[in-house]
Amino acid sequence: MENYSNVLMYGAIAPIALLLGGIVSILKKPNVQVRSAILHFAAGVIFSVVSVEILPEIMAKHDVPEIAIGFGAGVLLMLGIRYFLEPQKEQKKETGFPTAFILVIAIDLLIDGVLMGIGFVTNQETGIFLAVAISVELLSLGMATSITLGNANINRKKIIFTILGLSILVFGSTLLSAALLAGVSTGFLEIILAFGLAALLYLVTEELLVEAHESKQNIWLTAAFFGGFLLFMLLPGG
């Protein structure tokens, strides 16, 4: 990898955003419209990174078997996580600390970290764009996690330490995946990119936009999606 210091620097943005979102929600609970706007924007940003950075990298080599293997594995993993773990996340009557909910969040964050690591392995520009894009998502996730823990009557100190632990998890996942995937062969990188493409598409269509539409919609919320997409499309190098 050309510059691991960039992984350290830009990879830290996402965990900081997660922690910041959690702390902000403790101090002042955001309304559903604010969260919806953030989710729409995050979806647009991530979709833009997929379209402008990752997909062209895959199509430049366009090895059909490698794309099929990677993309298929990504789809199967995300659907498997949804099938086995989503019911745990949706349990509303869990008393005490919502362990199942936090477990699902932790797995989501592990995958987010791996995706950022994949971005940095692809090239520094893609890694930076993807790190910033996922940071917007994690800002909202930090808010949601803090609110869920607060509704379970968890004290503020424990909420902060829980979100801090999750922040360390996603940071560690990013650093480890970037280190392990550095120097992989071109063929294996094609598989990894296709895997990341599938996971990111799932993140946008089945998580971010689904959650964003849980509140009453208006044209400004929808515009946030296109604004996020356009912003990253116009950035230098995009």
UniProtKB/TrEMBL annotation:
The chain crosses the membrane at residues 6-26, 38-55, 67-85, 97-121, 127-147, 159-181, 187-205, 217-235. Keywords: Membrane, Transmembrane, Transmembrane helix. This is Putative divalent heavy-metal cations transporter.
